[in-house]
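Entry for magnesium ion complex. Fields follow.
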Amino acid sequence: MTSLLEVRDATKRFGGIVANEGVSLSVREGEIVGLIGPNGSGKTTLFNSIVGHHALDAGSIRFGGREITELRVPQIARLGLLRTFQQTRVFRGMTGIENMLASAPPEGTGLAVMFGRSQPREAARADDLLQFVGLYEKRHLRAGELSFGQQKLLEFAMALMRSPRMLLLDEPTAGINPTLINNLVDRLQRANAELGITLLVIEHNMPVIMRLARRLYCLAHGKILAEGAPEQVQRDPRVLEAYLGAA
Ligand SMILES: Nc1ncnc2c1ncn2[C@@H]1O[C@H](COP(=O)(O)OP(=O)(O)OP(=O)(O)O)[C@@H](O)[C@H]1O
Ligand SMILES: [Mg+2]
């Protein structure tokens, strides 16, 4: 089966720091794949490279059979590859519904909605997705008034607003309470099963990633240390050592 996302020998340096070195990873359409690794092992850097936030020093990235190594964020987003942030990025002063409409794809009205030009179709879609993540009742609250977990759900819904083919989620459950974690995990599974969205998920919460992912990659010191079934990777002595060494 061909890969939807294919990273080959990706290397990224920041001055003297080698954040990613020779990283190769692939995700097939419809998969949920986990990316684990101790703090500072290069997980977020890899996401930043994949979505075109910064250029690789070496290596290549393909998405949907297309070379995207040299493309930038907006072009890659237009191909249907989006990410969410470790620190959420919602517009705190705007309501839930306004955040959703501002996330509508550029082909639609996008930010024009701020000036009262939103289309009924987009508004209905925003409502549906807010229902989907369980925030419909809170749609008129400003995002800044939502809990951190609810802001993460909103950010997820905002990404769905753009109908991605694949989503990269950077620690979606970090800093949120157990009830919302269950809620979010359930929505991620449904987004995958019902909307067909392929997911690559960075997680430190092991029970969560064991529930979500069928396959895991573990990064340590910028390199892929292990890859395979979650139970297998979790028990890998090299992985355990990497975590203990970092603690
Ligand atoms: N923009 C940057 N400029 C300089 N150094 C950076 C930059 N981004 C990341 N780094 C460095 O690259 C290394 C990997 O960082 P990265 O954020 O990718 O790790 P991570 O695995 O996401 O860690 P965490 O689990 O804490 O989020 C770290 O040493 C970090 O300090
Ligand atoms: Mg990170």
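NOTE: The radius of gyration is 18 Å.
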